Amino acid sequence: MTNEAKGVTREGWRLLFATLKLQQRALIMGACVGLAWTLGKVAVPQLTKLAIDRGIEKNGSLLLWTMLILAAAVIAGVFAGWRRYIAFRESRLTETMLRERIFAQIQGLHVGYHDKAQTGQLMSRSSSDLQQVQGFVVNIPIFVSQITMVIGVVVILFFSDPILAAVSLFPLPFINISARSFSHKIHPAVMAVQQEQAQLANIVEESVSGIRVVKGFGAEAVQQGKLNIEADDIRRESMRAARIRSRFLPAIDLLPSLGLVAVLGLGGHRVINGDMSLGGLVAFNTYLTMLIWPMRNIGMTVAFAQRAASALLRVNEILSEVPAIADAVEPRKLPQAGLAQPVGAVSFDNVVFGYDIGHADITVLNGLSLTIAPGESVAIVGATGSGKSTITRLLLRFYDPQSGSITLDGVDLRDLTLSDLRRAVGVVFEDTLLFNDTVSANIAFAKPEINQEIVIRAAKLAGAHEFIMQLPQQYDTVLGERGFSLSGGQRQRIAIARAIVADSRVLVLDDATSAVDPTKEHEIRDALATVMRGRTTLVIAHRPATIELADRAVLLDNGVIAAVGTHHELLATNEKYREVLAAWSSPQVVE
């Protein structure tokens, strides 16, 4: 094993111990319960010996010894159940705490991280990797009790017959050596299996979420081929791990059996010679048999621990990620609205921004300066790639500009908490996402506690009420995943209603009418005008009818503002503006 691999292994074990330390009191309690179980189990062979030697050979009371053996068995059974309960309780608690932490971290990480992260990888680390940790933690109380039983049995055997004990237990050190070798060899194999499982999860997630594209292009066989490759990789890596286990587990079975052979050979002659009682031989043999499963389970627990340590390494890659976008150390508050102080002023001051694509930054905005007065509506118009949607992302602080600043009501966005900022800025994205929930819950997403009257009013303003009332359960109708049971226009109307409920001081319509049939655009045009009235609004649009809703239009070209004016002014005076609108309204020709 290389030094780097050893370092990774040590880091995995460090993370595992740090995780267990959070529950050390409960795990110690489980170990104590396991100790009581051990006492019950260890007492049975000793009582059996006395029953044979005194109850059978010396005509003693068999009933007494039978009842004592039964009592010891009951004690072992009760504490075994209690130990199992504590083990599962603590393992599920560990899994729950880690799942909540990783989910909170995934939600808290900046959008730039999610641009590069694979969804399947995140899902795998939030599910199967955590199950590996849970599978190990559930074995800890059992493992500790079995260790104490091994120690107790070994002590009893040496007190009973030191020579016979030394002969029968001679293979045990070799089991420990095998376990250490197994631990080092299984680690890279387990890591490889978990990595391949994450890759397969990513293929499945992409295929399911993009099922319409897959079916639309008849590409089922292509995706099946990708999955077959990943499935074969999992099988190959799993078989590599299985070969390592197959070399280790036989030693666990064989080595204790060698001790049994020695006991039967040497101990049998001692009984015949009268140097050992028959009950003593039976007890000695029973004790040695009791070591087989614990010793085997120790090896299995080492494997579980190695998997858990590997899984925690993968989980920690997410937990240790530092969000590039975070709350200010000493955040400021936005000014409150008042008659003398309208709110919603937005200012972009010499903003420069580019996306990190691969190893190069692609500049999108190059010194953008724009001021929007409270209550004013501004349409941002530009060709594809001109940076229209980037303005929305910067205003929501999905990203921070490389230079320049953006302020809301005079406060730099970087001086606000993210929650305050995103409550102040409502947005309707071009790519509408609805959740697998009721229509009412989707509309009230930002404020789930609001009453139904506000939900219905928002739906009416967005022009969604009429088609909602035609759904099977109306507002209680559960939409399918991503809302694909509705048309694109219907989804966007519900998204607009959701933004209305949010009641933000700034509203961003990021091409919000793009999926609405142009012949029906007028149905929500008046609703949008009502929502925009008196509210600062950024309208990212290319349809003239939508642009006309804004007080003024801004033409974006090569990351800077090329022209400013009303829609009709720019249409009459600016050739570039007319070209952009014509390009959007004309069918695209692919050569």
TrEMBL record:
One of its GO terms (cellular component) is plasma membrane. GO terms for molecular function: ABC-type transporter activity; ATP binding; ATP hydrolysis activity. Keywords: ATP-binding, Cell membrane, Membrane, Nucleotide-binding, Transmembrane, Transmembrane helix, Transport. SMART domains: AAA. It holds the Pfam family ABC_membrane. It is a multi-pass membrane protein. This is Unannotated protein. Residues 346-583 form the ABC transporter domain. It is found in: Cell membrane. Residues 28-307 form the ABC transmembrane type-1 domain. The keyword ATP-binding applies. The chain crosses the membrane at residues 26-44, 64-82, 133-157. InterPro entries: AAA+_ATPase, ABC1_TM_dom, ABC1_TM_sf, ABC_transporter-like_ATP-bd, ABC_transporter-like_CS, P-loop_NTPase, Type_1_exporter.
